[in-house]
Amino acid sequence: MSSISAILYREGTIRATNLTFVFWDLFYPLCYLLVFGVGVTAALGSPVSAPGVPYDSFFLAGVLGMASFGIASNSAWSFFMDRDNGIFFEMLTYPMSRAEYLFGKMLFNVGIGLTQAAITLSLGSLLLGIHVKINGLPVLLVAVAIGTAGWFFFYTIFALKIRRNDLFNSVTSVFYFVFLFASSMFYPLEPLPRWFRSIALANPITWQVDLLRYGSIGLGDPRRLVMEAVAFTLFVFACFAYAVRSLHQE
Amino acid sequence: MAEFALEAKTLVKVYRARRGALLRRPSDALRAVDDLSFRVPRGMIFGLLGPNGAGKTTLLKILSTLLAPTGGEARIEGFDVAAQPLEVRRRISVVLQETASELFLSVRDNLLVYARFQGLESAAAPRRAGELMELFGLTDEAERKVQDLSGGFRRRVQVAKAFLVRTPVLFLDEFSTGMDPILKRAVMDLLRKEASQGRTIVLTTQILSEAEELCDDILILHKGREIARGDLNALKLLSRGVNEVVMTFDRIPAGIEEEIARFQPVRSHVAGATIELTLKAEEGRALEIASQLAKRGHVLRVEIHGASLEDIFVELTQSA
């Protein structure tokens, strides 16, 4: 337990003393919602999303999913920084297990994910008048927490397997493009071509965003959501197991 | 309590050949540590020497639980590095070859974060961090982020951490890189003091004079195998009959290099008006050679002495 608190202390001190990290982790998603969400709502209106749902309300879940994804990607990139300056290997000699190391980092990410979700929900509600369903909040918060953890483990695998920073950056760029756009993050799947819809339905970020959308504005088919929740939980466990295995191979 | 701080029995590490894949390059199989056995009692400064690729860093990585051995076993304070890595990590501090520090943290926070990982009491940590910053000349840089410091200062931060807590075993890989002579001396004094209080120190270095001055016991590795082991005097016995001649002339005599080559030295070096020869010859013969060379010019200074650790190292690794 003391090693996990040491990891939280380390990550917290790094964030607290580097304000640009705080901006990227906590406020960037909100900026996205304010600029992109407001822009599309004003230009195209609700038909883009779902009948009777303003686009910024629809897009809120997408922003929260994007934040989970982005926080995880930033954290995984920090493996490169740590490896480049040697502290990564030195940390692996500290009195903690590999699983504790990953678990501690994941816990910190989840904390950041929940904090940014609270900020985005509060300011989204205050500035844009988005009506968030209070009874959906537990689902939303669980989806943010598990999603942030899952994407962190997912990215960790690649950060540990890939040795070159430039290659990792290329991989994350491709991931951003494929995962974010071939999903329900920016638009509903129903009007999409069949092949596109099939890809998006198999995309774990669609599973997470659908749960977030249900939690935030109550939109979604409960039967499909249950299946997506199960699939996403399995995805997270598989990523955790493989990330620990990858770390053992370091 | 285990009898030895470190113990290795028929330790082997083989890096398997890897086929190239999308994200990795192919590599050949390599036997980096080959059937090594040794024991190190508590409170000893133990030196691991060897040329590049000898297996020193691999051995250090195995002992510090970063790498699993392929065969044999290694124990730190009685705990198996492969089977009980967490117990081992609770008993070691490691300074790796690379400059390893938290770039985004200040010097002070680097020390405090390390203290937190090592379970140092929160009341004691700031005091101890302050003492070490003073000792390592880091007080003026305490609030600066490490990424804004030079390589030498970063190394100081890294080495200072190793003295923050008193783990029973301390591994130092090329600890003096980037240190000025005064700081290096201070750290060497500190290492001796820690060892006298029972801490076991394992160091690798390419600077053989450092090992000569510090180590109670030395293991010389070559291609993963032990080629010599013992204290400095025992190692010098291995190189009996090797003598070093240093002569300074008022100016270097013409054709002296050809003359030197005639005596077939193990190695020779001419710098300015000074020549240095390492000869596989008894003392009498070394004296004779020195007097022959002296006839070639006006000699200002002559020095003849037995083999240094560097001579032993060169001789052993070349003949292995």
Written overview of the protein:
The complex is a heterodimer of chains A (250) and B (320). Chain A has 10 helices and no strands. Chain A is mainly α and 250 residues long. Chain A has one domain (2-248). Chain A is globular. Chain B has 320 residues and is α/β, with parallel strands linked by helices. Chain B folds into 2 domains: 4-20 and 28-236, Rossmann fold; 240-319, Alpha-Beta Plaits (2-Layer Sandwich). Chain B contains 11 helices and 14 strands. Chain B has a 6-stranded mixed beta sheet with strand order 6-7-8-3-9-10, sandwiched between helices. Chain B has a 4-stranded antiparallel beta sheet with strand order 2-1-4-5. In chain B, helix 3 packs across helix 4. The longest helix of chain B has 16 residues, at 181-196. The two termini of chain B are 37 Å apart.
Write the SSE topology.
The complex is a heterodimer of chains A (250) and B (320).
Chain A: H1 2-16, H2 19-44, H3 55-84, H4 87-91, H5 98-128, H6 137-161, H7 165-181, H8 194-201, H9 204-217, H10 222-248
Helix pairs in contact in A: 1-5, 2-3, 2-5, 3-5, 3-6, 3-7, 3-9, 5-6, 6-9, 6-10, 9-10
Chain B: E1 4-15, E2 30-41, E3 45-49, H1 56-63, E4 71-76, E5 79-80, H2 85-89, E6 92-95, H3 107-117, H4 124-135, H5 151-162, E7 169-173, H6 181-196, E8 200-204, H7 208-214, E9 217-222, E10 225-230, H8 232-238, E11 242-249, H9 256-262, E12 267-271, E13 274-280, H10 283-294, E14 299-306, H11 309-319
Parallel strand pairs in B: 3-8, 3-9, 6-7, 7-8
Antiparallel strand pairs in B: 1-2, 1-4, 4-5, 9-10, 11-13, 11-14, 12-13
Helix pairs in contact in B: 3-4
Poorly predicted spans of chain B: none
Q: Which pair of chains forms the biggest interface, and how many residues does each contribute?
A: A-B, 28 and 31 residues
Average predicted local confidence, pLDDT of chain B: 88
The CATH superfamily of the largest domain in chain B is P-loop containing nucleotide triphosphate hydrolases
Low-confidence stretches of chain A: none
The number of E-state strands of chain A comes to: 0
Question: Can you tell me the CATH topology of the largest domain in chain B?
Answer: Rossmann fold
Helicity range of chain B: 25-40%
What would CATH call the class of the largest domain in chain B? Alpha Beta
* Shape verdict of chain B: globular
Order of strands in the sheet with the most strands of chain B? 6-7-8-3-9-10
Helix count, DSSP H or I runs of 4 or more residues of chain B: 11
Quaternary state reads heterodimer
Beta-strand level of the residues of chain A, as a percent range?
Answer: under 5%
* Radius of gyration of chain B, taken over Cα atoms and rounded to an integer in Å: 23 Å
- The overall number of domains of chain A is 1
Distance between the termini of chain B: 37 Å
